[in-house]
Amino acid sequence: MESNKMKMNSLIGIRMGNIDIPQIDQDKLDGVITEVSQYVDLLDDTIYNNVKVGNPHASKEDIILAADQAQVLDFAWELPGGMHTRIGKGGHTLSDGKKLCIRIARALLSHAPIVLFDEVTNNLNVEDACYTRQAIQALVKLKTVLVIAQMKPVTSLWDE
Fold first, then answer.
1. Do the bridges between strand 144-148 and strand 114-118 make them parallel or antiparallel, or are there none, so unpaired?
2. CATH topology (fold) of 4-158
3. Sign for the pseudo-dihedral over CA of 86, 89, 91, 93
4. I want to staple 49 with a disulfide (CB 3.0 to 4.6 A). Which of 44, 45, 136, 140 is the partner?
5. pLDDT per position in the chain (160 positions), as tens?
6. Model-level pTM?
């Protein structure tokens, strides 16, 4: 996971109310912003437990709802163990788009009202980008989303 200092540096120039985000106490910021980054490793665990990382105290129903909203259930139920399928270190058994859906499910499950997407879709192919579009659309309906992206096609995932 990116260091907190790197996360703060990526938010320079962004204000929350009248306060520059990098000036907010880190402990308070962690409760307000959750990050979806291409560098976040998935656990060598089940899909269910990887989604649960977004909120370790979430109920089973909330975990399944977040997975459904993020399109995780669409692929999980096709796997032999469903949500209890182990995905290997870093999610190496999944495509980049499926990994992104799990990261989005984590963000949906978290209590943080702001989600920072940091160059997260750079490695997606066309099929994965189309696959994750619905997950991203579910997220922007429920959270404030900040997108750091250098490529215009990436930002078009949020356009409607």
1. parallel
2. Rossmann fold (3.40.50)
3. negative
4. 45
5. 344 445 555 566 666 666 676 677 777 667 778 888 776 679 999 999 999 999 999 999 999 999 999 989 989 999 999 999 999 998 888 988 889 889 999 999 998 888 887 766 666 777 677 667 888 888 888 888 877 766 554 445 555 4
6. 0.79
